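>> received
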Amino acid sequence: MNWANESSAREFILLGFSDRPWLQMPLFVLLLISYTFTIFGNVSIMMVCILDPKLHTPMYFFLTNLSILDLCYTTSTVPHMLTNICRNKKTISYGGCVAQLIIFLALGATECLLLAVMSFDRYVAVCKPLHYVVIMNHWFCVRVVAFSWFTGFGNSVLQSSLTLNMPRCGRQEVDHFFCEVPALLKLSCADTKPIESELFFFSVLILLIPVTLILISYGFIAQAVLRIRSAEGRQKAFGTCGSHMVVVTLFFGTAIYMYLQPPSSTSKDWGKMVSLFYGIITPMLNPLIYSLRNKDMKEAFKRVMKKIFFL
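>> returned
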């Protein structure tokens, strides 16, 4: 590990959109509004899923974990970004950059796996309803969630180690809003192709394998739903899975764009915008997607609000 040698300069300079000062205020307002909605939306989902007994099911157990992930995911980057926008010197300490990189990668990878687990839950609910309680029992749900978290952090440690071990030759200017793998690799003064190949391999495991499992699950779900004779039954089944598919498309689409291509081939400004989308906008949209499209969630929210106001 060469982290100590490479950290002789105790901070990084985060450029962001420093070359476009007129974007600073609109970006600050966008980040502040998005972060506020993210906190309110995800905390509301967590509160409703915990307080309403009717939502004590595997689907909402996974949804609670997704909300915790999204809340921590944005908190690892947005508060520092808001602070930096208000300062002339936009810096982050070496230790802060390492922590940000590890947490951001870990939570992102965990979310990839959790979304795959949620698709399996929907597959069992639609295709094997009579065996649902047996297959999706409490201990199975706890184990697969624990596996997702453990694997996510293990992947993060590996990718962070590979990225931070690259020699930087004193370069400190990170052309991004926060410490992310593609941006940090561009600081290297050595050939990054071998490291990019290793990182690509890990990204394929974390991104493409869950996407493949999700597509397979929804392929079986589509076949099962099309066999349902009742139009109301088909609509209910598609409605149950529709929210999850929207979230999967938003999150995986942008993450695959960023991590399954060489950093050198990514337009710097476009890469920043894509990172903002899957790191900030998507966690904000998740609660809206799940609450607005989910009848059970809306009814549970009303019940919880009535209890709170009654007390």
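>> The two ends are 56 Å apart (CA to CA).
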